[in-house]
Amino acid sequence: MNVQPKVLLACAGSWWLQHPAKAFANRDALAGLWISNKNSTQVPAELYRRCWPFHLALKPFFHLAPQIWEERAFYAFFPIWKAWLQAQRWPEVNVVQSIIGYGTEPFAMADKIGALKVVDCPNSHPLSYFGFWQRECDLWCPGENVPIPRWMFARMNRELEQADMIIVQSNFCRDSMLWNGIPAEKIMVNPMGVDTSIFKPREKVPTKPRFVAVGTLCVRKGHQYLFRAFEQVKKQLPEAELICVGEFKTDLRKELPKWRHLFTHHPRLSHPEIAALFQSCTAFVFPSQEEGIARAQIEALAAGLPVIGTHEGGATTLVQDGVEGFIVRGRDPAHIAEAMLKVARDPELCRRMGEAAYKKGAVKNTWQDYGDRLLAEYAARLEKKRFKLPPPAGA
Fold first, then answer.
1. Would you say 222 and 139 are in contact if contact means Cβ atoms under 8 Å apart?
2. What is the pTM assigned to this prediction?
């Protein structure tokens, strides 16, 4: 009989952990959700703990400061999170799951009680994450540095070594772990789920070419290449439109004045608003230079949008070139533009791709499906750990 996982999820902020927490709770497998954000998925109150000191320290920055100062404050106040976490009384737990960079303290306790230590990775290996991003800063905003402190990257590296299991969102992230010496048996590829009550398949292919990109506007996500590609598209399809959703990072400041006239910008939209926007779009375009797999990319698939994306952006995990969309070379605007023109000029191709995209993004890929995949893996690893044979005598 398999061991029943009891999972504690702990992380400053929340990332997407509230969704697997709800899925785990539905299976009576949640030991706790410890975050600094509100309980937005209605996890049972007795299983939810909020780090109020960290949240209140950051609250003025959420509402009053530019994005870069909010990010700096997050790391400056990190000791508050650590102190709060170390003061908590632990429930019965046999799996500890944290976003990479936030697992050091939970893993120390996991070692004491023999729990499985799981790192959840939003991005590629820290060396790839930093290197790919810094390259784009050096090319497009000389003098700009990756805003994540080096001490956080150091924590990430150590946690990967400490972890029993590493969750990655994409094939690219798995490859990056292997390139950097992480054993393959530690890695599980599990793309994010989607809320299918919000993201519904597109009802029809729009007559006007309309492309959408959702995610922070920055050089790491390749917007400097997207803008150049769309400029080429506009020369052949003057009626085409590009919509970008997300806040700006400072590393795009030297590029932005050249292209601000080219696209419609929404700093923030709710998930229902994004879902409504997807209904009127031709394709989702995301030439990211480094990514786990953008949550919006999966939501776009679930909404029946063809995805034009990159291997480095995680697209190859769910998108077959020419089936659910196109895989492009992210630093090649001409190649990106070629894919955009193909899907815009051929409504039947756009329709077929959209139907295939829906099947890949939504069918058997709700957040409950995502959580169930993790629980099955945890049960198998706990059973293996439980019955692991001791080393031979004299070894």
1. no
2. 0.94
